[in-house]
Amino acid sequence: MAQPLNQLSGMPQMAAAFDGWTTKITLNVVTQAVVDGFVTDVINTFTFNGTIQPLSPEQIALKPDGQRSWEWLQIHVITGTNNLETNDRIVYNGKEYKVMSVKDYSLNNYVEYHVVSDYE
């Protein structure tokens, strides 16, 4: 049986480090479907272990001018926990956010998402 690339490359596995600082997080992923001829929001709820924290000032400074004052969060999860994609809409703690970037660090066994408060 072949070894996964991350084991061959010597890349550190973040799963063990994540165990000490992750918490249970519940997100609602909002998708749209046509029901009886009308576009309807469909909400799928899932819970996973991860971290959510604000972006650093340095990261926010790299965002476009008009978006720097918006609320930006980063979400770190173990690879395979969820599969959010750019432009997905999520609800966290009653607020809607839009996934603006997906950073796949699967060689290190985690994924980082950048989300911004969605237009209300």
Which stretches are poorly predicted, pLDDT < 50 over at least 5 residues?
Answer: none
* Strand residue content: over 45%
Rg to the nearest angstrom? 16 Å
Mean pLDDT: 83
Within the largest sheet, what's the order of strands? 1-2-3-6-5-4
Sequence of secondary-structure elements: HHEEHEEEE
Q: Could you say which overall geometry the principal axes of the C-alpha atoms support?
A: globular
- Continuous helix count: 3
Report on this structure:
The protein has 120 residues and is mainly beta. It has helices at residues 5-9, 15-19, 57-61, and strands spanning 23-35, 38-54, 72-78, 89-92, 95-105, 110-117. It has a single domain, classed as Thrombin, subunit H (Beta Barrel), CATH 2.40.10. The chain has a six-stranded antiparallel barrel. β4 and β5 (95-105) form a beta hairpin. The mean pLDDT is 83.
Task: Provide a short characterization of the protein structure.
With 120 residues, this protein is mainly beta. The protein has helices at residues 5-9, 15-19, 57-61; strands spanning 23-35, 38-54, 72-78, 89-92, 95-105, 110-117.
